[in-house]
Design goal:
Length: 350
């Protein structure tokens, strides 16, 4: 009599099915409503309860004269600068996405010495902030444009484009020479930096840029990705800049500001360093500069020339696009030359 082996059932305990495979990993999986998902509503609820309980002291603090002055300056800077910031972001995203970089390569002269001033002047016709100029300059280099011309465009586009010059005219209605001074100083510094790089720059100092975030799977997606990127960066820095300007205006002792403002050299260096630290978008920096009434026009011009060319966010973006070695050489030279250009221009025009 033959003994037959029973057929496997497939769902027996000897071998789990494919659907049961994730079972060993099911234990660590957080239950619904646990972890960060459950903590977020709790934190928000506790914050709201704290605000309700402390509404009396908070209301009293906001009614203090110092806070009233702070809020006035803060809101004034934001309200004046926000329309120019939004318009600049939309235009820069449209140009970065819909204008092919090959257009710039065809429009520039073949000789690098002539391509530098042409690229610098192109910045006067193409609206865009610092957040857009770095990837656009990277795309130019990637498509064969001489680095000297691309760097001249990188420096000039955020500083002398129509949106920035219009915002400067609105911020300084009684000083139209500020618009001319900003244009002349920024264009001169951009061209000189381009020529310096053409003469002294080395190919191993500049890394070939990678594909930029503006080149998305479709034009529409790339456009909105660019808008979201620039709004998050430029808007955040605008708020920080407005807060810093309001704090200087309302909290800093007037004697300190007068002491710094009365010394021309200290005033220029102070506002130049402040421009680097605040990292305000170029569409909005004129309103912050105009609020610093204690300082001379030349010091404010240094603030407006330095900021769009080198600040903390620009240094990080330049290092990420062209390499850290490039940024470590390019940023200090740009800072010194921007201050020099602002001082010389201010001595003649202001």
């Amino acid at each position: 009599m033959a003994i037959t082996r029973p057929a496997p059932t497939g769902t027996d305990t000897h071998e789990p099915t494919r659907d049961a495979a994730p079972e060993p990993h099911a234990a660590p999986r957080p239950a619904p409503g646990s972890g960060s998902e459950s903590r977020s509503p709790l934190v928000l609820t506790m914050l709201l309860l704290t605000l309700v309980l402390l509404q009396g002291p908070i209301r009293g603090a906001l009614n203090a004269p110092v806070m009233q002055s702070w809020m006035t300056v803060f809101v004034a800077v934001l309200v004046q600068a926000l329309p120019f910031l939004v318009l600049g972001v939309l235009l820069s995203a449209a140009i970065a996405v819909f204008v092919p970089p090959a257009f710039f390569a065809r429009a520039l002269p073949s000789r690098p010495a002539l391509a530098v001033p042409v690229a610098g002047m192109a910045g006067a016709m193409l609206p865009g902030c610092e957040c857009a100029s770095v990837p656009v300059a990277g795309a130019l280099v990637r498509r064969g444009v001489t680095p000297a011309a691309a760097l001249a465009f990188l420096l000039s586009a955020p500083a002398i484009n129509p949106i920035v010059l219009t915002a400067t005219a609105v911020a300084f209605p009684r000083n139209p020479e500020m618009v001319v001074g900003r244009f002349v100083a920024s264009l001169a510094v951009s061209c000189v930096m381009g020529w310096l790089w053409q003469r002294l720059g080395r190919t191993d100092w500049l890394r070939t840029p990678q594909r930029s975030h503006y080149e998305g799977p479709s034009k529409g997606a790339a456009f909105w990705n660019s808008v979201r990127h620039d709004v998050m960066h430029a808007g955040g820095f605008l708020v920080v800049g407005a807060m810093a300007a309001a704090t200087l205006k309302a909290v800093a002792p007037a004697s300190w500001l007068r002491t710094a403002a009365e010394n021309p050299l200290v005033a220029i260096l102070a506002l130049a360093v402040l421009a680097v630290l605040l990292s305000i978008c170029s569409e909005a920096d004129a309103f912050v500069a105009a609020s610093l009434t204690q300082f001379s026009l030349t010091a404010k011009l240094a603030f407006l020339v330095v900021g769009p060319m080198i600040d903390l966010k620009l240094f990080a973006m330049q290092a990420g696009t062209f390499g850290r070695g490039f940024a470590l050489r390019f940023a200090p030279a740009t800072f010194v030359l921007a201050i020099t250009g602002a001082v010389l221009t201010g001595a003649v025009l202001l």
